[in-house]
From TrEMBL:
Tetramer of two alpha and two beta chains. This is Tryptophan synthase alpha chain. PANTHER family: TRYPTOPHAN SYNTHASE ALPHA CHAIN, CHLOROPLASTIC, TRYPTOPHAN SYNTHASE, ALPHA CHAIN. Pathway: Amino-acid biosynthesis; L-tryptophan biosynthesis; L-tryptophan from chorismate: step 5/5. It is an enzyme of class 4 (lyase). The alpha subunit is responsible for the aldol cleavage of indoleglycerol phosphate to indole and glyceraldehyde 3-phosphate. Its EC number is 4.2.1.20. Gene3D superfamilies: Aldolase class I. Belongs to the TrpA family. It catalyses: (1S,2R)-1-C-(indol-3-yl)glycerol 3-phosphate + L-serine = D-glyceraldehyde 3-phosphate + L-tryptophan + H2O.
Length: 264
């Protein structure tokens, strides 16, 4: 069992929802990234999604685009990101999933990427620009190294595709709440809730809902049919504004609200 599976099993046993916190590695700077990971865990984060900055982040809205530009200006490379991971592993055993675009990994060599990042303490990867149909070889490599390759479902996923992705999924399934890019916005989470309910017919893998979540209320709504919620832009925005404390307060509020909602 890897760290992700272990953590999700613990949450389930405790009747708690997970909170996955996305942080762009190196934005506004490396020290803030490391401190934010430490404090996010203390405030109730269950998993860290570490963004590996890329120059053309096509699935990202303005906040994470800006964070990526800043991180690249700070000279972030995969080699530096490995160092950050090793630093984090000195004080934390929280599950960490990378989020990046295939270009960087392909250039580095995908198998070498998996080996090196796993060795530095990463537990899996989210690669939004490789469709399921094209990811067979990547899946094989990840499975060989006990490294999670996140599968996606969205409101537009057909039942046939859902059956395929659910069958191949390990760790967690990323349930995208709407068809836009990342960023806080008003979302009707009952739509992805219905999709989650359908996915349960195909899999026992934990479901994590993300995209748009900017408040504790939105987290509760997103969690209704899921096992975890994912928050990115709302946290990253506060970090970029130099408001680490506010970012942590948001995570803390989400933890409280989700715990209270699970009592019912
Ligand atoms: O920023 P949001 O709307 O809270 O969404 C989560 C998201 O940031 C994180 O999971 C993520 C950041 N970049 C991505 C690209 C694709 C998929 C997911 C992501």
């Amino acid at each position: 069992m890897n760290r992700i599976e272990k953590r999700m099993a613990e949450l389930k046993a405790a009747n708690k929802k997970g909170i996955y916190v996305y942080i762009t590695c190196g934005a506004p700077d490396v020290a803030t990234t490391i401190e934010a990971v430490k404090q996010a865990e203390a405030n109730g984060a269950s998993l860290i999604e570490l963004g590996l900055p890329f120059s053309d982040p096509m699935a990202d809205g303005p906040v994470i685009q800006t964070a990526s530009v800043i991180a690249l200006k700070n000279q972030m490379t995969l080699a530096k990101e490995l160092e950050v991971l090793r630093e984090i592993r000195k004080f934390s055993d929280i599950p960490i999933v990378g989020m990046g675009y295939i270009n960087n990994m392909y250039h580095y060599g995908f198998e070498k990427f998996v080996k090196d990042f796993k060795e530095a303490g990463m537990d899996g990867i989210i690669v939004p620009d490789v469709p399921h149909e094209e990811s067979g070889e990547m899946r094989r490599i990840c499975a060989e190294h006990d490294f999670v390759l996140a599968e996606f479902i969205t409101p537009g996923t057909t039942e046939a595709r859902m059956a395929d992705t659910c069958q191949d999924a390990r760790g967690f399934i990323y349930c995208v709440s709407n068809n836009g890019v990342t960023g806080v916005k008003k979302v009707d989470y009952s739509v992805i809730g219905g999709v989650c309910e359908k996915a349960r017919k195909f899999t026992d893998t934990p479901l994590a809902v993300g995209f748009g979540i900017g408040s504790a209320e939105a987290a509760v709504a997103a969690a209704a049919h899921a096992d975890a919620v994912i928050v990115g832009s709302a946290v990253v925005k506060r970090l970029l504004d130099g408001k680490l404390d506010e970012a942590m307060q948001l995570i803390h509020d989400m933890r409280d609200a989700l715990d209270a909602s699970c009592l019912h």
